[in-house]
Amino acid sequence: MPSLRRQRFIYAHFAWLLSVVLLLTVLDSLTYDLLFLFSLIGFLVVTELTAPVSVTPRWRQRLIWPIVLGLIGFTVLVVRRIVAILPPEVLPV
């Protein structure tokens, strides 16, 4: 059975994702890139806001892998955007 803190973390992240999807839908800007970016930001914020002060539970130690994968995905998105902005003469063939 999940602990109260773990449930609070899951509920907070779910509320963040739901509000992001609704906001992006209302603004007619719902794309995979923006959804990924805002979900990563929300995941990092919720992770920091729900961090315990003294003892770190084992389930929170496993959050490092989604954070690392999210930052790698963010790097890929940034590189893709930069390549799309650059003129074709700048990129080597």
TrEMBL record:
Keywords assigned by UniProt, alphabetized: Membrane, Plasmid, Transmembrane, Transmembrane helix
Species of the source: Halopiger xanaduensis (strain DSM 18323 / JCM 14033 / SH-6)
Pfam family membership, one: DUF8044
Keyword Transmembrane set for record: yes
TM spans (from-to): 9-27, 33-51, 63-83
Keyword Transmembrane helix belongs to the record: yes
Protein name (Swiss-Prot/TrEMBL): Uncharacterized protein
